[in-house]
Design a protein that fits this description.
Layout (H helix, E strand, L loop, with lengths): L4 E5 L9 H10 L5 E5 L2 H8 L5 E4 L16 H6 L4 E4 L2 H6 L4 H13 L3 E6 L3 H5 L3 H12 L9 E5 L13 H18 L8 E4 L4 H8 L6 E4 L6 H13 L1
Parallel strand pairs: 1-2, 1-8, 2-3, 3-4, 4-5, 5-6, 6-7, 7-8
The protein binds 2-phosphoglycolic acid (PGA).
2-phosphoglycolic acid binds next to strand 8.
């Protein structure tokens, strides 16, 4: 059985005053669910020191170190206490032009630093309406998954671009179709693919979490907006524990 993971992606939100929410999330973490918080890098070290809270970076540079002003290496994230790193989020792919090859290099760097990569893939609304969803996702997965990926160092997050931050959650049927396909692809390319956690992301909240977590190949969620407060995030963690 893959691990159950509830990961919160704070994106470019969070000042030191908001660590109160991180503390409350740490305090409310439930047995049987791995809760992970990915705060902005400025808060990573201090958030990592909260007992019971696993943390992650939101991206990393593919290189281990060097002349890359403003960037962070995976080793730096690990040194700050992270055990995960999101790679290939659609906001990075869109805002920073990150290609599948870039994402694979970042995931490899995360692995080399001992981090578990949370590798994101997702189709746009145009791609879905053109009937291309599964073909696009399979190509993204094949292009972004580095050699050496296994269930212990990689988690896949399916995040339809049209569902991120829009309040439009994919329907259980849409999520099931993609996650069942994902499981099939990952089992073909990764020896222990049956054990790799597959997360859904895109407007997950307390009111829709349970129906998503009831799906066979949904092992958790990558949560943006609803991870910013303990009041919104902990019910999602509890829904996952109950699934
Ligand atoms: P959202 O973001 O939950 O705010 O839709 C999800 C994500 O981008 O990871």
């Amino acid at each position: 059985m893959p691990r159950k993971i509830a990961a919160g992606n704070w994106k470019m939100n969070g000042l030191r005053a908001d660590l109160e929410q991180a503390r409350a999330i740490a305090a409310g973490a439930t047995d049987g669910v791995h809760a992970v918080l990915c705060p902005p890098a400025t808060l990573l070290a201090v958030a990592s020191d909260l007992s019971g809270l696993a943390t992650g970076g939101q991206t990393c540079h593919p290189a281990a170190k060097g002349a890359h002003t403003g960037d962070l290496s995976a080793a730096m994230l690990a040194d700050a206490g992270a055990s995960y790193c999101i790679v290939g989020h659609s906001e990075r792919r869109a805002d920073h032009g990150e290609s599948d090859a870039d994402v694979a290099a970042q995931a490899r760097a995360a692995h080399d630093a001992g981090l578990t990569a949370i590798l994101c893939i997702g189709e746009t609304l145009d791609q879905r309406e053109a009937g291309d969803t599964l073909a696009i996702l399979e190509a993204q997965l094949n292009g972004s998954l580095p050699d050496g990926a296994h269930a212990g160092n990689t988690v896949i997050a399916y995040e339809p671009v049209w569902a991120i931050g829009t309040g439009k959650v994919a329907s259980p049927d849409q999520v099931a179709e993609v996650h069942d396909a994902l499981r099939g692809w990952i089992v073909d390319v990764v020896p222990d693919g049956a054990d790799m956690a597959l997360l859904y992301g895109g407007s997950v909240k307390a009111s829709n979490a349970a129906e998503l977590f009831a799906l066979t190949n949904v092992d958790g969620a990558l949560v943006g907006g609803a991870s910013l407060t303990a009041d919104d995030f902990l019910p999602i963690v509890r829904a996952l524990a109950a699934a």
